[in-house]
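Action item from last meeting closed. Structure (265 res):
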């Protein structure tokens, strides 16, 4: 592995632009931006060459996925088999346990995920080593428009569009929810990765026209106590499904992977 991590960024959107700009400015010690992969032609605005995914694998030793669950499904194993590490933002892809297993067993590259929009995962992961968490709940509250999905029927869409207060859109486990809302509930999968059990995490997705901040509340109890983590994020103005904090969580994960944080992580 080179002393400086050669990072390739997949996705030049709400997350990718902030991450890519910071990397290009060398704001993450120990990591540099080598190339960008995106569906759309990026033109001169991009701070690194736009390349095809195959070429990114040749140029990089770390791929940062900030594009969507489909990229993890389609490319995950190829990234790792090529010897390149993979940092995943679209953790919802890992609710496919067969895929998650294959990614764990493929190498020599390694797979990592970022905590993204949700906090407290380190503590949940620590407690899980003592014994299973018996109750884990996540309540995600977002602007209704960010939760509309192609599979929704007219009645549900109309409930979302005419809501004047909080409306429960769906309840289910972390196995079910991130697949149904692929761009807006990856946090459920992230909590499940920390807890180590997709079915143990009960998720409520709430649409609220008053949710000018996106809220994620994680509640859990286990052998050593009870936990509650609540965040209220400003949404990205261009893509309100994504909280503005997420690229900074990706950058934090990158700094840890690059191992030269300039801070004690
Ligand atoms: N872990 C967490 O807490 C969070 C995770 N996420 C995940 O991160 C993803 C990205 O978020 P965000 O930046 O807000 O999304 P955006 O839609 O703003 O940007 C995604 C970019 O990636 C591109 N893209 C999508 N698929 C591909 C592909 N197969 N190959 C190349 N480029 C592709 C998109 O192009 P196009 O639009 O043309 O498809 C778009 O330019 C989300 O879809 C979600 O899965 C998001 C928020 C929080
Ligand atoms: O950014 C957020 O608040 C959460 C999100 O979109 C996701 O988990 O996919």
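Sequence:
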């Amino acid at each position: 592995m080179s002393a400086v991590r050669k990072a390739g960024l997949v996705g030049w959107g709400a997350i990718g632009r902030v991450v890519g700009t910071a990397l290009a400015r060398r704001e993450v010690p120990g990591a540099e931006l080598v190339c960008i992969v995106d569906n759309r032609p990026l033109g001169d605005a991009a701070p690194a060459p736009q390349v095809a995914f195959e070429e990114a694998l040749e140029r990089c030793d770390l791929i940062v996925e900030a594009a969507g669950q489909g990229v993890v499904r389609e490319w995950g194993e190829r990234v790792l088999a090529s010897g390149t590490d993979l940092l995943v933002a679209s953790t919802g892809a890992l609710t496919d346990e067969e895929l998650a297993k294959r990614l764990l067993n493929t190498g020599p590259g390694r797979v990592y995920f970022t905590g993204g929009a949700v906090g407290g995962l380190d503590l949940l992961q620590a407690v899980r080593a003592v014994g299973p968490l018996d109750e884990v709940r996540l309540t995600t509250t977002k602007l209704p428009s960010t939760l509309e999905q192609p599979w929704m029927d007219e009645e549900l869409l109309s409930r979302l569009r005419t809501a004047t207060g909080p409306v429960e859109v769906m309840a289910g486990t972390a196995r079910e929810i991130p697949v149904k809302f692929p761009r807006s509930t990856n946090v459920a999968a992230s909590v499940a990765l920390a807890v180590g059990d997709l079915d143990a995490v009960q998720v409520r997705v709430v649409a609220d026209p008053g949710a000018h901040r996106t809220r994620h509340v994680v509640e859990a109890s286990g052998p050593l106590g009870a936990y509650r983590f609540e965040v209220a994020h400003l949404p990205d103005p261009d893509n309100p499904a994504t909280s503005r904090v997420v690229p900074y969580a990706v950058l934090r994960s990158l700094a840890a992977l690059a191992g030269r944080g300039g801070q004690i992580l």
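Note appended to the action item: The longest helix spans residues 69-81.
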